[in-house]
Recover the amino acids of this structure.
């Protein structure tokens, strides 16, 4: 295959089709709508299911229904719409069926705006629907990576009978980049031993539910989910490192914030500053172990995000106060420029924080002074 | 043991699980009618049921077919997801009036409007049964419930929603009727309607729904017999029985 110019949202849609997507259910919301629009023509042309639902609630429950039959199914939305889907996600998690959900994030809370943001990190990674459940969350930083991770997300969701979310900010959804699509994979219905697709006279009936009325049964379910999560943590952590070998300052950033940070790292390297970047690709499971190792090497970490410091907490948990962790974020739909992050790198060198510095407080103070 | 004189037995479409329903509740009757129809049409093997949240939340324990359990009100959306990827299967939802007419109103209206080729069994007993008898959208004016303790005051609590009348205005609906379970004659008519609804689905004739007026002796605070009388005297006048929409194609079906 050769590279073609793909818009992020459409690239995700086509990648899902080529990964064997059999059903898509969605609802229009900026900056995600092109996924819905693209699949509204692509799916029927292949004889596959497409429904523009009455709401995100409707969409996620259609996903839930289709997921129970064992086919590859997904939905996509943007922040306010994903909030509406949290009910369905919790049920899907409790029922242990695979499903893929794409969140093209925008500024919030509330209606917010339609500019690129990473404000739903906590919702995706730590929060979301009610109840105790883990979920896999992937964070692409380019159109190519969005394609690759879309394909991967279906495999992971099926392998672990778990929700796999892709979180990307509106910038990656909206921008066009040269990227290579995978080959079209024929739809293969797997014969899962849990799917409710009609007995067809060949087996006993099956039931898929998230109800465990006896608390001891629910407890066992919670334990089962988190034991499975241990496998995910052991096998599926993915990240990318840049200039990390001799880095004394390690920047941690995902998605667009990680990509902008890379430009800053390159600029700093040209000036002889030993700085590197760790870009988590799986934000859940989080590359905690790698950050733990890097704590022995780095004299400071700088977390860059397009929010008020959500992943920051996960980095702090990995670093455990051994070296200073600093933060630079642009929330509300603002994308940082590489120069801003380069400035932060230089500030850390000239006026290093101590391990006792509250990274978010210090950042808030700096941001307020500049404003 | 089958004997020559056997006139009544448990339908094969039932599991051996005894139901949890209160004495005198007509959920059991409605379940049985659905089970008899699935068995008579020989479609158990390809049927997938969608249970609601409400008293019928455990419907999946009683039918010997594949089942999923939906979030409150979302059964028509789940059923849509299943039917769209498995169009040759028979998919039905079984929903109460809190589930369907309150929290799930969006899902039912749009499934009907899209003409989803599925069957909905809608139990109207004028209250939220499982949570202890609160007011539902279908609660009659003046009717006392645990959340309308002086009787439903239409000035502040609004008017009952007539679901069959409303859905029958939608083009996507093929079959939409209201029946009652308060006496043997009406139970027989209800079964015929359920059969028609499933027959229309296997022919791909669009959305089908049978609304069933049902009792809730426990929450109504009545004996089972008085509950049946309540349906006849109060529910039927408020929710007239009849065929609200039967498409021309469905009228041709001969059972």
């Amino acid at each position: 295959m050769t590279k073609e110019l793909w818009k992020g949202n459409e690239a995700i849609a086509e990648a899902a089709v080529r990964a064997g997507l059999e059903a898509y259910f969605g609802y229009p919301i900026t900056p995600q709508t092109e996924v819905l629009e693209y699949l509204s023509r692509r799916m029927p042309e292949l004889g596959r299911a497409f429904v523009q639902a009455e709401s995100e609630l409707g969409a996620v429950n259609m996903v839930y229904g289709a997921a129970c039959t064992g086919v590859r199914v997904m939905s996509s939305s943007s922040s306010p719409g994903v909030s509406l889907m949290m009910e369905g996600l919790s049920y899907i998690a409790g029922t242990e069926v695979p499903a893929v959900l794409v969140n093209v994030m925008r500024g919030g809370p509330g209606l917010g705006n339609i500019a690129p943001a990473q404000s739903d990190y906590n919702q995706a990674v730590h929060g979301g629907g009610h109840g105790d459940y883990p979920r896999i969350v992937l964070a692409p930083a380019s159109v190519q990576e969005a394609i690759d991770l879309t394909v991967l997300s279906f495999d992971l969701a099926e392998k672990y009978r778990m929700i796999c979310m892709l979180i990307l900010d509106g910038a990656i959804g909206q921008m066009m980049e040269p990227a290579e699509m995978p080959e079209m994979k024929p739809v293969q219905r797997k014969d899962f031993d849990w799917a409710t697709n009609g007995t067809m006279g060949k087996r006993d009936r099956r039931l898929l539910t998230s109800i465990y009325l006896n608390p001891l049964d629910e407890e066992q379910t919670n334990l089962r989910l988190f034991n499975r999560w241990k496998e995910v943590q052991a096998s599926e952590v993915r990240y990318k490192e840049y200039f990390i070998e001799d880095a004394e300052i390690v920047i941690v950033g995902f998605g667009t914030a990680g990509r902008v940070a890379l430009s800053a790292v390159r600029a700093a390297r040209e000036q002889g500053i030993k700085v590197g970047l760790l870009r988590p690709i799986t934000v859940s499971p989080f590359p905690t172990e790698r950050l733990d190792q890097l704590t022995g090497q780095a004299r400071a970490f700088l977390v860059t995000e397009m929010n008020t410091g959500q992943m920051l907490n996960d980095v702090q948990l990995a670093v455990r106060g051994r070296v200073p962790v600093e933060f630079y974020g642009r929330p509300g739909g603002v994308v940082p420029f590489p120069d801003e992050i380069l400035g932060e790198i230089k500030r850390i060198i000239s006026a290093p924080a101590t391990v006792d510095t509250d990274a978010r407080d210090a950042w808030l103070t700096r941001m307020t002074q500049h404003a | 043991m089958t004997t020559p004189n056997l006139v009544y037995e448990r339908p094969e479409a039932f599991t051996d699980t005894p139901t949890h329903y209160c004495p005198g509740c007509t959920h059991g009757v409605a379940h049985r009618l659905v089970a008899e129809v699935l068995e008579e049409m020989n479609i158990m093997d390809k049927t997938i049921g969608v249970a609601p949240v409400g008293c019928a939340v455990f419907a999946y324990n009683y039918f010997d077919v594949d089942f999923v359990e939906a979030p409150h009100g979302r059964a028509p959306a789940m059923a849509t997801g299943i039917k769209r990827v498995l169009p040759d299967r028979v998919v039905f939802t079984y929903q109460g009036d809190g589930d369907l007419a309150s929290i799930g109103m969006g899902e039912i209206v749009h499934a009907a409007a899209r003409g989803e080729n599925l069957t909905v069994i809608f139990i109207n007993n004028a209250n939220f049964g499982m949570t202890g008898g609160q007011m539902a959208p279908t609660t009659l004016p003046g009717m006392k419930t645990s959340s309308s303790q002086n009787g439903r005051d239409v000035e502040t609590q609004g008017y009952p929603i007539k679901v069959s009348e409303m859905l029958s205005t939608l083009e996507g609906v093929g079959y939409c009727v209201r029946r009652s379970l308060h006496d043997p004659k009406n139970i027989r008519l209800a079964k015929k309607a359920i059969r028609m609804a499933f027959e229309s689905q296997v022919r791909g004739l669009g959305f089908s729904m049978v609304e069933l007026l049902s009792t809730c002796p426990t929450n109504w605070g009545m004996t089972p017999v008085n509950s049946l009388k309540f349906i006849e005297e109060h529910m039927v006048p408020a929710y007239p029985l009849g065929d609200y929409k039967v498409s021309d194609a469905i009228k041709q079906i001969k059972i």
